[in-house]
Amino acid sequence: MTGTPSALDGLDPLLVAPKRLAIMAVLATSTTTDFAFLRGHLRVSDSDLSKQAAALEAAGYITIAKTGHGRGSATAYKATKLGRHAYRQHRATLHNLLNG
Amino acid sequence: MESNEHGESVRAQIDEIQRGELAPWVTFPPTPAWWAIAFGGWAACFTLVVGLLDGAVQSFAQLALVLVLFTMIAWDRRRRGTYPTGRPPRAFTGAVVRMLIGVAAVAGLAWLVGAQVSVWVAAAIAGVGSWAVVARYEREYASIAARLREGLP
């Protein structure tokens, strides 16, 4: 069944989840962002953020770089070209839907 | 009813996008007072290096100052936990333009005084002027950021 093109076709199923969309929105306007910043922005637990970020990484939308060990360790997130493209498309579709 | 729920879901996602895209620009810890002073010190040193040194020594000193500047930016980046990129939100345009005009005015005045009066006086002008420009910009930026944070959905 092919069906007719729908206004919802441009929506990315992965980005419909609010937390993943919020992560992509932050990464779309930053060079890199660390774990603490994203956790504070999303107001989620460490494990929840790790889970959402892992899903985006698995899709090739972001890269996760870990440096150091123990208390001095840091995790940095960065949107990939594919991720930025998917985000922009999702964003444009949402605006089209809102504007009728 | 279904269309209403659909519209609310779209609106909620757009709000999420607005908050997320603005976050790297408006969420940051307070800037320490020494930050503007450090820029003033850097500008004074740069003026002295350009005005007093020559040849390889000057090049080496300029390189060292550029490295200091990169280190300061890297420190700020680490402190903020993020670093915004792309076009700044429109609300910041006035502050950025005023800062750039201020920097150009200080640089122009320092250059003129350096050429006509004394390199040491030029360094003092560059130092104090840059300090004032950066301090004013930081205050203005923080105030705009606070206003934007309050207006977020």
Separate helix tally of chain B = 5
Percent strand of chain B equals: under 5%
Fraction in helix of chain A: 40-55%
Helical/strand content category of chain A: alpha+beta
* SS-derived structural category of chain B: mainly alpha
Widest β-sheet, arrangement of strands of chain A: 1-3-2
Radius of gyration based on Cα positions of chain A: 15 Å
Q: Most extensive interface, residues per chain?
A: A-B, 24 and 25 residues
- What is the helix/strand order of chain A? HEHHEEH
Averaging pLDDT over every residue of chain A, what do you get? 90
The span between the termini of chain B is 23 Å
**Sheet with most strands of chain A:** 3 strands, antiparallel
The named CATH superfamily of chain A: Winged helix-like DNA-binding domain superfamily/Winged helix DNA-binding domain
| Average pLDDT metric of chain B | 93
| Share in β-strands of chain A | 15-25%
- Quaternary state reads heterodimer
Number of structural units classed as domains of chain A: 1
pLDDT < 50 stretches of chain A:
none
Strand segment count of chain B: 1
Main β-sheet description of chain B: none
What count of structural domains of chain B? 1
